[in-house]
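Hi all, posting the design record for the shared folder.

TITLE: backbone redesign
STEP: 1 of 1
STRUCTURE INPUT:
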């Protein structure tokens, strides 16, 4: 029985600061994590990525729960109607009163840059002359930490919980934790929409002047009989002679380790993204077919449809 979907992906940011940290003086600082050797890697938080996925689901025509939440001061009470709102189903919710709580079936890692931050900054200015002031009035200047990097991310989807809600999650009093399920067509629709949203991923801060495409350029998808983030630490690469070289051994080790649990696996790769594209295609073909990213997403959507082909849960 298939219980989960593990996804690993690589995205490229040519120049940007997708998910900033705090501001130091007039400098907008990028989120970074420090390595044992003292160098630092930029990262995009899981919260930011979940926000982007939500926004893409809205672009695809789904209604989100947020406009229907009750706000009182700093307290936000969600509608807690996951059968109605796809974001409450996929990403969970919390009623501050503690009466209703759903843990997200979609677990998202931070997207970690593969290369250390080099200290680059973008300089921005605002001239008061543009506001009918004299040139002598000056203006203000600000800086933004920027990077060019390849980010690796991982998603684990508890497939058996998508469209499935317990009485505790719904705040219903019951002597037993009863389960309410959506029908198969609706569950299929929601999972397929999530895959599509991943293929359309973009967002973050400063998109007006630092637009970044975060959609996967390399994608690994595996349907599993267990729940495990197979690709979380398996995607690494180095920068060599102006190109991105994917390290194959960690990925092959992960595939072999979870071979007994992998029911269906597919790889997607955009042409020209990896410098060792031929080696990657040859090595990974021993485990699963290597197709384009778009085709890999389509096959993942078809796999979901095949799993939930019946009319009811």
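Okay, here is what came back for every position:
SEQUENCE:
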């Amino acid at each position: 029985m298939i219980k989960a979907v593990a996804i690993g992906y690589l995205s490229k940011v040519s120049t940007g600061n997708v998910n900033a940290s705090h501001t130091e003086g007039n400098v907008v600082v990028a989120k970074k994590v420090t390595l044992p050797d003292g160098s630092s890697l930029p990262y995009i938080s899981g919260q930011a990525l979940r926000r982007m996925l939500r926004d893409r689901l809205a672009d695809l025509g789904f209604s989100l729960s947020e406009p229907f939440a009750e706000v009182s001061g700093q307290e936000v009470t969600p509608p807690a109607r996951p059968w109605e709102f796809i974001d409450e189903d996929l990403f969970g919710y919390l009623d501050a009163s503690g009466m209703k709580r759903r843990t997200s079936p979609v677990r998202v890692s931070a997207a970690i840059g593969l290369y250390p931050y080099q200290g680059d900054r973008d300089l921005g200015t605002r001239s008061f002359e543009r506001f009918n002031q004299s040139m002598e009035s000056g203006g203000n200047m600000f800086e933004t930490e920027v990077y060019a990097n390849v980010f690796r991310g991982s998603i684990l989807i508890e497939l058996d919980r998508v469209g499935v809600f317990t009485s505790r999650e719904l705040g219903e009093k019951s002597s037993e934790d009863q389960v309410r399920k959506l029908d198969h067509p609706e569950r299929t629709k929601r999972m397929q929409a999530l895959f599509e949203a991943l293929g359309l991923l973009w967002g973050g801060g400063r998109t007006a002047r630092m637009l970044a495409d975060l959609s996967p350029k390399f994608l690994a998808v595996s349907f599993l009989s267990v729940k495990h983030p197979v690709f979380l630490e398996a995607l690494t690469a180095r920068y060599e002679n102006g190109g991105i070289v994917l390290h194959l051994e960690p990925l092959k080790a992960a595939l072999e380790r979870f071979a007994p649990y992998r029911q269906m696996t597919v790889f997607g790769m955009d042409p020209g993204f990896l410098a060792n594209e031929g080696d990657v295609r040859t090595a990974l073909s021993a485990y699963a077919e290597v197709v384009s990213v778009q085709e890999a997403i389509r096959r993942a959507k078809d796999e979901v449809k095949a799993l939930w082909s019946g009319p009811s849960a």
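COMMENT: The chain has a mean pLDDT of 92.
Let me know if anyone wants the other runs.
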